[in-house]
Target: IS481 family transposase
Amino acid sequence: MNSPNRNLAIVKAVRDQSQPAAKVAKRFGISRQRVYKILADFDAGGPEAIAPKSRAPHTHPQAIPERLRKHIIEMRKELTRAGFDAGPDTIAFHLQRQGLRVPSTSTIRRIITNAGLVGPQPQKKPRSSYIRFEAAMPNECWQADITHLFLADGTRVEVLDFLDDHSRYLLSITAQHAFTGTAVAETLQHLIDTYGPPASTLTDNGLVFTARLAGRKGGRNAFEKTLNHHRIQQKNGRPGHPQTQGKIERFHQTLKRWIKARPPAETITQLQQQLNEFAKYYNTQRPHRALGRRTPEQAYTTGTKAQPADNPQDEWRIRHDIVATNGKVTIRYAGRLYHLGIGRAYGGQHILMVVTDNHITTSLKETGEIITEHYIDTSRNYQKPYWRKGQPPLT
Model:
């Protein structure tokens, strides 16, 4: 029979094995007087008198009350059922809002793990595989992307969202059957009117975001025109590297988990109502560990916001064309085709157009003689010349 009782081993060594007290004291690393004290206690009270006493306190002031433990478990279940983030940081955030004691996140994690509420976690990519980018201020960089959701009948719907990189604040989330470049640009302009222009944007290379990286003729699209008008720097992720937009990719995971926990929307109008509800939750009720447990709204609305640098990026390009018999030519500007009036007298002639942002100077290719000048008015399809040959020269 083995016994972990060190004091009893000392008694046995002296009494049963007749070892000298001095030798036993040296072997066990105690004084000879301590050996004699153990022997005296044994003689007076037997084995119980020399049993080692627990060093643990009789009370545990830091122990989690059972009522709080059950509350944490139930909160985890409720948040998960609702499709909300239910990690230790979020639970701690809600406990604080409820005025309850807030254990450490490691304690909360242990409670929900012991309750069997943490399943196997999928293997994640190493952090080194992600491009680490962190804007230092609100409005320093807006990320934008389009993802897809489905209606109850299986109809595929596009969802456009804009996210502030620094605060994770969801600036906008909108559902449509399909987004055109013009619709994306209009959304951007509305956000600029509401929040002020960001210093930069970060998107993928989709045609609604950029035409210059797709080898597409016709200059900048509507999104790029809006950026240029406000002097906003445009940044695009590398093709095939969605990690560049890691924040908005992870945001989409949160969105889809939340949507999946609800009955599927029958119409786009119903889906938009769900997205509006999600935006309010995401911005005001979901704390972020990287933000010091602040919500995106708290992080976005505090502190100074970045502004665009004074970096004009006017568009310069040339275009060779032939004037149609009706005296018109077409040109793509901001993602749309416009008809420029040149004049029937020039029908069939080869021309050269020099484009400087929204200003177009047209000359005859043969002689170099300037025949018209236009300023594109995006509210009109047909563009009358601002000046044509025969009028007084522009000053």
Summary: Confidence is low (pLDDT under 50) at residues 127-131.
